[in-house]
Amino acid sequence: MRSRDSFAQALLRATPPTITVLAMTAVVQFGAHTRVLFAPLAASAFLIYHAPHERSNHVGVIVISQLVGAACGLGVAAFGHPGYVSEAIAMLLTISALISFDLLHAPAVPTALIFADAPVAFDNVAFFAIDLAILAALWFAQQAIRRHRQESRIQ
Question: pTM here?
Fold first, then answer.
């Protein structure tokens, strides 16, 4: 069982990803077809909060792997029909690319599935890019908070 201080600290640490997810939700509200894109990006936000020291949760890995997932999904959708086969191909391409480039960030796989099955539309890509930028801002905020805490401990 946690003490009050550790609970308060956990709530404090949960504030940046919560604000980020709420901001992403607000952006998603503008696009009717983009709500489903929210799930993998929200998972990324939680991972930044939960395990900020993991390489797979570094901003470069997150952004590039999410872009790889989106590109694989969009590429498959452009050449095929939405459905199981397109999703399977997008998933396999994404996993292969992430392993090949050592960019293992699991939420990028559902991103590929979503783009492979969704109608390819500019608004999906635009809202995804905006949400991804918000997610990157969360990572930088988390790093600043971590550095501030480390400096406070030293003094």
Answer: 0.76
Find the domain containing 86 and state its range.
4-154
Q: How far from chain centre, in Å, is Cα 91?
A: 16
Asked if 52 contacts 28 with a C-beta cutoff of 8 angstroms, the reply is no
What does the pLDDT look like over 87-118, one tens digit per residue? 999 999 999 999 999 999 999 999 998 888 87
116, two tokens: 């492979």
**Dihedral sign computed on CA atoms, order 84, 125, 58, 148:** negative
pLDDT tens digit sequence for 21-32? 777 667 666 655
How many independent structural domains does the chain possess? 1
Compute CA distances 122 → 12, 25, 34, 71, 155, whole Å: 36, 18, 11, 13, 50
